[in-house]
Amino acid sequence: MTRVALKGLLGRKLRAALTAIAIVLGVAMVSGTYVLTDTIKAAFSTVFTTVYKHTDAVITGKSAIGNDNGQGGNGGLPPSLQASLLTDVRALPGVADAAGGVADRAQIVGRNGKTISRGGSPGLAFSYEPSGARFNPLTLTKGAWPAAPNEVAIDASTASKEHFAIGDQVGIVALGPVEKFKVVGTVEIAGLSSLGGSTMSVFTTPTAQRLFNKQGKYDEIDVAAKSGTSPTQLVEQIRPLLPATAQVRTGTAQAQKDTSNTSGFLDIFQSFLLAFGGVALFVGSFVIANTLSITIAQRTRELATLRTLGATRSQVLRSVLLEAFVIGLIAAVIGLFLGLFLAKGLNSLFVSLGINLPQAGTVFKTRTIIVSLLVGVLVTVLAAARPAWRATHVPPIAAVGEGAVLPPSRFAHLGPYAAGATVAGSFALMLIGLFAGSLSTGTRLLAIGLGAAGLFVGVSMLAPKLVPPLVRVLGWPAVKFGGASGRLARGNAMRNPPRTASTASALMIGLALVTLVGVLAAGLRSRFEGAVNEVFVADYALTSTDNFSPIGTASADALSRVPGVIVVSGVRAGQGKAFGSRVQVTGVSGDVTKVISVKWKEGSSQTPSQLGADGAFVSNAYAHAQHLHTGSSLTLLTPTGKVLHLTTRGIFNPPKGGSPFGDITVSTATFDASYQNPQNVFTFIDIQGGVTPANTEKLKAAVSSFPDAKVQTKSQFKDNQLQGLNTLLNLLYVLLSLSILISLFGIVNTLVLTVFERTRELGMLRAVGMTRRQVRGMIRQESVITALLGATFGIPLGVILALMIGVAIKYPAFTIPVGTLLVFVIAAILAGIIAAIFPARRAARLNVLEALQYE
To answer: N or C terminus of the chain: which is more exposed, having fewer CB within 10 Å?
Structure first.
């Protein structure tokens, strides 16, 4: 039976290849995800290992709120170290050498006069000290290290892309206006000329300290131990010298800590991409099950003959499963290596969307090979289980009858009840995942994922009962405008409802997920626009060029000096800790309500001007959670360790689409005195005459020396703030398109197999006068009807899923984007047309005489 199975497989090469494509693409996504993320992780690991290669101990600032990663802009950075600490460390008996360094953010200005920003990646800035050369992780590729206050070394990648040569002048933006520096060298780190989208600039230590307002301070002190002193012993010697705002680790431990910080993000990134690989494989399982069901139905006489010759049911079962195993194995191997190319494609996709991450040499782990092969084979075999079981029920008597079909299962009459139970159970599982409050995040996501998968299975089980009435409606245009070929196409789609339903179900999944994303995004977009319309009462806004990074307060000061400007009010942002939890903290000036509309639950438009040194206003949700009212006291801990004893002076109701204010808002003076290097996230401006071309030009001229800032009107502000959402939306659509592509191959598969099945029928139609063009039209219209059926199932299901998730997360808006859904329907029609190209050409080219003799 093994030889029979393999020979049969070789005799159906085209059908086997079409079946394998679904698994190839799904496995390629899994393999490509692992290769890409492993490569990025290796690059980061190499960087951090190189950074601390010659360092035995590392002293850094310690954030009092437990966040040392600089999240939330400079408002979340740990405090710097006093330079006097370096002197004390050098005096320790176990210290051979020590050097301090400054590391912060600065942006390089390109040839076009704009800051170089790739996908929001930071511009990294470092100090260089000749005496600390042993600790320097950077390698000079050209030129020399900076030695004068006006000199800088930049990363080799930026120098190459922006055509900066040694001796050129380059603009650098730190906390103030752009400053010009002479390029004296180019550098790289850990053999990487580029850190993804990040740029690097290197200054002398005094210059770096001046640029970042850190005179007499360092961000890090690197220490080398004397011979005979271990890194652990060195750490123990250093620890008593440290203030509460500092910490020390061994060089190895610091490298592991930094690697761990990036690995956490990359693990989420990896899971995100693997989820789409899982969706692709799930869709592929529908395609495989449907394809094998059709081929087994077409091989009824062959299987019956084997039974007549003595083959047992178990041998038939093993034969079919062996075919599936071989197809799955070959497809998984192809998908595994295709993943190497897909990894490069995914990276190019992220770069095109502005998401640029560092990479080293390609990493192809054994785990990637094992998981990819295992997943590909298991999905194929499991998808083949039901068709294989059906194959065992072919009676030997079927060998003598032409056109014999598989007998219905004795449980077939229970199908609708099983489908209903599956749908109900899946809904229940999703509701548990969405609304049960005691579940962990992992359990919640698992329940939602399994519930959604079960829902798709349940709907596909119900679909055969719905196919005939739906096809009558969906096929009406084909009958109306397609003539005889249209009527035949509609009849063919209704001929075998389970087959048509199964084919459409694969497309249903992709369209449902695309619709889910589209509906949620539409709600978010509408609420955000509503929130901006509600709170933005200023004439203009000033933000960073990338729309979300904080910028120095000097740009706002420059605007306040423009003739005719009435109000310039910036919103600072940082992090703090209150009531034992981290909170978002903002700082505002007293005139903020002149440019931002605030709905007060307690307080008034005068509240911001009455905050003083110890006042704060809080959001309604935070006040409710912490039982705060006007006059209530609260204690806020800042990253520098400063404790602010505040009194609640107001409570505001933020709009549902978001607010520029954090949980706790203090005065600008209090914020600036408590946070290191405060920066504005937003700055709002009122000017005499309002928005006019002349005023716009005046404001732009005022910030011309700040290339990292841009002036915007309200409409421009809305559009720019939505760019991030649009980028994410485009990414999701592209990744989900893989599952839609697989479903198209499912339609191709079904049509090709039905062409085989209807060879004699097509020959007869051609014999009685049907033209090749009419045959192509018939196949094409059948494909479009099937695709529309997938849209009819998928789009409403996606809307329902979006509604359920929206209710569970208290989504601020539920908006059905009618225009977007119409685009999805049109896309389904186009997909049906594309899927029919090959099967239609194959059907039209059948030789009439050979087709009439075909069995």
So the answer is: C
